[in-house]
């Protein structure tokens, strides 16, 4: 039987490519696997030969040692692959299909799944609602930064690409459907972005840039992206965004210079709990900064889309409250302005088919917007390192050499 090389978290700042067992249609014991999930059978699952699997800012929270992820955890929740084996209960997918896998694992049978809330499926994580591949506290489903990976409830979870050759030709774009493109889009939709909107997106990492591309797709009049990383801001400008350097001060003043008023219609947080302060404060972490600033900047009656991740516990937090996930949020301000907030995992399935069509018909250039760079699986440690240093790139791993040269 084939082996399986996989990217593993080996302690703070350390990832390694190591040998892993070839996956089967059953959950086995392993680092981070919830004991209640061990032995769980998945006749509804498929085995994928991974075509593309991306490194995400969400992985970095674990790799920076900001979570309780155990050593040996197999990383990777952004998965696109070719079906090479299917369980007895898979009805509508065939061996040879190339599919995009939403990073949320969902059963398709529970109350939340039936309501389309696939980011908080009730049946896949014994600890709490919501799950993902290769992630701490998410049930222990093996990650997909590997040559092969098992995807459960495959008929429900997989999005099949219509044509194999076309899929491989556009794989740099299509690989973003497993997470960041729907996530950025969801951030914008829930912030109320539409024709003529003015939008401020905090964060010019891959999610922020995907949100910016989404805002354009949704018809925004002005898209302003804020960060303290000059390369990432330049990347945002490369496809028509205005930018704000938050290390120079409060984004509000720079927004006023761009728009003529210190206010936007829609605010998106694509940063999360590792947020830096503004101005001189940008040297330090100040986890409530982005949320408070978005309430300040967003018009009364507006909405905040918050894909940026916030945690229930953070061993590396700046203070004791933040260690418990309690942040100093100015909720009174948001209340006074009747702001709506949308948090949580993006329910990828709500958007991935439509965004696939936008990619296949050249309505959006998502790989270009996030500056996708394809690297071999063996180079994952370098990808993690460079991404952690703030490279203005989205790293796409190519575990089986199936991604054609650009
Ligand atoms: N909700 C979801 O479903 C979902 C899915 C994917 C990622 N995420 C989360 O989205 C966030 C962004 O992901 P990413 O891959 O782009 O991560 P990233 O770490 O590459 O990007 C975050 C960016 O925010 C910048 N930043 C820090 N403080 C800032 C501030 N005060 N104002 C503006 N920018 C600031 C950083 O310099 C960095 O460039 C992460 O928290 C990630 O976990 C959530
Ligand atoms: Zn991700
Ligand atoms: Zn469910």
Automatic annotation (TrEMBL):
Single GO MF descriptor: zinc ion binding
Alcohol dehydrogenase-like N-terminal domain segment(s): 43-163
Organism domain of life: Bacteria
The keyword Coiled coil is assigned to this record: no
Similarity comment: family membership: Belongs to the zinc-containing alcohol dehydrogenase family.
Domain Alcohol dehydrogenase-like C-terminal: 206-272
Keyword match Transferase: no
Signal peptide start-end: none
Protein name (database record): Glutathione-independent formaldehyde dehydrogenase
NCBIfam families: fdhA_non_GSH
Swiss-Prot/TrEMBL keywords: Metal-binding, NAD, Oxidoreductase, Zinc
Record PROSITE patterns: ADH_ZINC
Cofactor (UniProt): Zn(2+)
């Amino acid at each position: 039987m084939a082996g399986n090389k996989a990217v593993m978290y080996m302690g703070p700042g350390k990832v390694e490519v190591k040998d892993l067992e070839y996956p089967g249609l059953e959950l086995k014991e392993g680092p981070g696997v919830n004991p209640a999930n061990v032995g769980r059978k998945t006749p509804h699952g498929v085995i994928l030969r991974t075509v593309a699997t991306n490194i995400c800012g969400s992985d970095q929270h674990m790799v920076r040692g900001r979570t309780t992820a155990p050593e040996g955890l197999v990383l990777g929740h952004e998965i696109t692959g070719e079906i090479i084996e299917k369980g007895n209960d898979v009805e509508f997918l065939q061996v040879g299909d190339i599919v995009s896998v939403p990073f949320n694992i969902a059963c398709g049978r529970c109350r939340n799944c039936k309501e389309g809330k696939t980011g908080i499926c009730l049946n896949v994580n014994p600890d709490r609602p919501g799950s993902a591949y290769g992630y701490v506290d998410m049930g222990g489903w093996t990650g997909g930064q590997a040559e092969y990976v098992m995807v459960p409830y495959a008929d429900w979870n997989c999005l099949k690409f219509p044509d194999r050759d076309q899929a491989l030709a556009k794989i740099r774009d299509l690989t973003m459907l497993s997470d960041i493109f729907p996530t950025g889009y969801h951030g914008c939709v829930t912030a109320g972005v539409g024709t003529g909107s003015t939008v401020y997106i905090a964060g010019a990492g891959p999610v922020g840039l995907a949100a910016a591309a989404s805002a354009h797709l949704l018809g925004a009049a002005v898209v302003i992206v804020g960060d303290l990383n000059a390369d990432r801001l330049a990347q945002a400008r490369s496809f028509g965004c205005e930018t704000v350097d938050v290390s120079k001060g409060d984004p509000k003043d720079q927004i006023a210079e761009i728009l003529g008023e210190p206010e936007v219609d829609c605010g998106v947080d694509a940063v999360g709990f590792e947020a830096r302060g503004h101005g001189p404060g940008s040297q330090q972490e100040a986890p409530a900064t982005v949320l408070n600033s978005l309430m300040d900047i967003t018009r009364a009656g507006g909405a905040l889309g918050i894909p940026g991740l916030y945690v229930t516990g953070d061993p590396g937090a700046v203070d004791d409250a933040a260690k418990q996930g309690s942040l100093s949020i100015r909720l009174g301000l948001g209340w006074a302005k009747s702001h709506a907030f949308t948090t949580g995992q993006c329910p990828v399935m709500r958007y991935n088919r439509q965004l696939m069509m936008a990619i296949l018909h050249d309505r959006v250039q998502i790989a270009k917007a996030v500056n996708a760079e394809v690297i071999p699986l063996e180079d994952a440690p370098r990808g993690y390192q460079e991404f952690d240093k703030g490279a203005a790139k989205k790293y796409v791993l190519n575990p089986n050499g199936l991604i054609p040269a650009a």
